[in-house]
Every structure is written in structure tokens, then in C-alpha cells.
């Protein structure tokens, strides 16, 4: 990564490839920005959604395999001491299929969950199709939100041309994604308490 480059500058410079990498590594912010880029005509919407789907699926699959292969490694054992890991494992034990499908949507659990699932007894043949199905829903959804949100910003502030305006999109997208994530987390906990 080039020093001092912001997420939006990287997206503008590397386009669909940046969306592919960012979807797996960073998550919602990059995918929403990919949708906003599509709204501005900088990349095709289908390409942004496809890159986000592929990046999210591939990185989560690799994290799952790393959890499976390196479960006794000291680096991975350090992750198991984190509160997010404990929350992921507790949710996985209660609702394995639902959790595998939904972890992308749960704020604060997205990155650590595939590692946690990899350390569990969930077979790879079960994780792979659920991971693919979740990526096929998650990425187009957040790309679409970015596309739609880009239109709302343009209506509010006029036609966006400068890169600096993407900062507004980042802020708005972060607020939207955080709200959705917290809402999903609240619903997940409420459902778990009533089970």
C-alpha cells in the first residue's frame, strides 16, 4: 500500500481490484464505496458487486482454512483470548448454520469469525457453501446500498465530482453500516435470549 493514500484514493486508483481486496480485508466501507463509485460511473455496478462477492468469499475461506491449519499456533491462540472470539464461538455453538451465514452482518465479529469457525469442528464442506451463499447476498446488498446512498448524497449536495466528496460517503456509509450492524447484533442477541 502506498503511504498516505486514503481508502477512496486507493479505490479510485485501482478500481475493481481494490474493491476485491478491500471487501475481504476491510469490509463494508470499501464495498459501500464501491457502490458509490458505480453510482458515479467510475466502475460498472455489476463489476463492483462481483469483485466484492469474490473478495469476501475468498478471504473468509482463507481465514477459515488458516484457523483450521494453524489452530495451535501462538498467533491464533492469542486471538482465542479476545472477547470477540468468545462471542463468535458462543454464537457458533448455539446456531452453527445461522452464524456461519450471518457473521458478515454482525458488527465486531466479521474478521475474527472465519478464524473461529476454522478452529471449530465445523467441516469445510459445510462452511464452503454457506460462505458462498452469504457472500452472494452480503456483497451485492452493501454495493447496492452504496449505489443508492451515492444517489441520495447527490440529491442533497448536487452533482459530486471531487474526490473529497467521497469523505461524505465514507462517513454516511460508516454510520449506515454501524447502525445496520448494531441492529443485527441486537436482533441476534434477543433471538438467542428467547431460545
Describe, in plain words, how this protein is organized in 3D.
The protein has 195 residues and is mainly alpha-helical. It has one domain (7-194). Helices cover 77% and strands 0% of the residues. The chain contains ten helices and no strands. The chain has helices spanning 7-14, 16-25, 28-39, 45-69, 74-79, 83-94, 96-102, 112-119, 124-157, 166-194. α4 runs antiparallel to α9, α6 packs across α8 and α7 (96-102) runs parallel beside α9 (124-157). It is globular, with a radius of gyration of 17 Å.
List keywords for this structure.
single chain, 195 residues, mainly alpha, 10 helices, globular
Show the helix and strand layout.
Elements: H1 7-14, H2 16-25, H3 28-39, H4 45-69, H5 74-79, H6 83-94, H7 96-102, H8 112-119, H9 124-157, H10 166-194
